[in-house]
DNA sequence: CAATCACCTTAAGGGTATTAAGGAGAGGAC
DNA sequence: GTCCTCTCCTTAATACCCTTAAGGTGATTG
C-alpha cells in the first residue's frame, strides 16, 4: 500500500479508536503501516497537522450526517446531536479536537457550509456564527466532561446522560433561534443585545 | 523555600501562564524551583495529579468569585462568566482542564457547593446538575474555540467575542431555568422532558 | 548515641517528535 | 543506453519528555 496522507490519517484513526489518544503516536502509526517514523514527514508537516486532518475528517462526517431540517432551531439540534454522536462513536475525538489547531482553509470551508444551512433556515449570518460556535462549544465541552470518569458521576448523577444532553442542547438551540426571530421581526419578546460588533 | 505540593502547583501555574501548556513540563517546574525533577515525585504522584491540582485551584477561585445571586438564572450566568474570565486570564487553562482527570473527592466537594447554590436559588437538584454541567461544558468548549487561532476568525468573524459569549450563555441559562420553573409550577410553557432518569 | 524517617540526589530506562543526510528507484532528456 | 533529476523512504542523530530505582544527607526520635 503506497504511503499517502489519507492512508496515514486512516491508520491514525484506527489506533485512536483502538488504544485512545494517550497511546497515539507517530511511531505507532508508522509501525502499523510497516514504515519508519520519519517517512510520515514526507506526507505530513508534523504531528499537529496530522491530528488536525483527523479532526477535520470527523467534522466533515458530522456535517454529512446532519439532516436537512429547514428551521434554524431544528438544524442546530440536529447538528449538535450528530456532533455528540461522533464524539461518542469516535473514541477520544473530543480530546483530539481540544488538542489540535485545525487548518484554517478547511475550517473556513466547513464554516461556510454550516452558515449557509443556517441562513437557509432563516437566520442572520451573524447570529448563525454565534449559534454554530455555541453548539460546537457546548457539545465539545459536554463530551469532554462525559468522557471524564471522575467528573461524570458528580455532574450527571443518576440521570440519563443522553436525555440531559438533549435537554440542555434544546434549550440552547431554542434560545439562540429566539434571538434570531427578535432580530427579524423587531417585535420579538427579547431585544437584541447591544454592542454585538467590535469597534 | 521548602518544597511542597502547593509550591509545586504555584510554580507550574507560573510556567503555564508564561509559556503555555505545550511548554509545561515537570523538568521545567523542577528547574524553576532549583531542584531535580524526581524530587517532585515525593510530593506529587505523577504529572496527571499535578495538573489536576492546578485545574482544581482554578475552579476553586471561580467559585469564590461567583456572586451570590439568588435566582438560578442569575447564578448560572454569574458562574459561567466567572468561569470564562478564569479561562481568559489563566493561559491555556481550558486546554489543561480538557487534558486532566481531576481528583474525584475534590470534584464532589465543588459540585456540592455549586448544587447547594442552585438549590437555594429554587432549582431542583437534578436540574441543577444538568445546568451546572451545561454551563461548565459550554464555557470550556467556548474557551477552547476562542483560544484556537484558526477557528476563531471563522466562527466569531468580526463580532465582539465577549458579547457573543454572553448572549449564548444567557440563552442557555434562561432556557435551563425555564425548565426548572416548569418542573416546579407544573403549568410552565414547556413540559418536562421524558425519561430523564436511567433505568 | 543509634536508628529511623523525610526529603532530595544521581543514575538509568524507555517513551516521544523532529531534523539531517543518504540511498534506491522511476521517469524523462538527449 | 546513459545521465540526471525528482520522489519517497531509510538510517542516524538530536533533544526533549515521564517515571522508577537506588543511594545519600540531615533532622528527629527513642
From TrEMBL, chains A, B:
Keyword Transcription regulation: yes
PROSITE patterns hit by this protein: HTH_TETR_2 (PS50977)
Transmembrane feature ranges: none
Keywords carried by this UniProt record: DNA-binding, Transcription, Transcription regulation
Any single GO BP term: negative regulation of DNA-templated transcription
The protein's role, per its UniProt record: TetR is the repressor of the tetracycline resistance element; its N-terminal region forms a helix-turn-helix structure and binds DNA. Binding of tetracycline to TetR reduces the repressor affinity for the tetracycline resistance gene (tetA) promoter operator sites.
Name of the protein in question: HTH tetR-type domain-containing protein
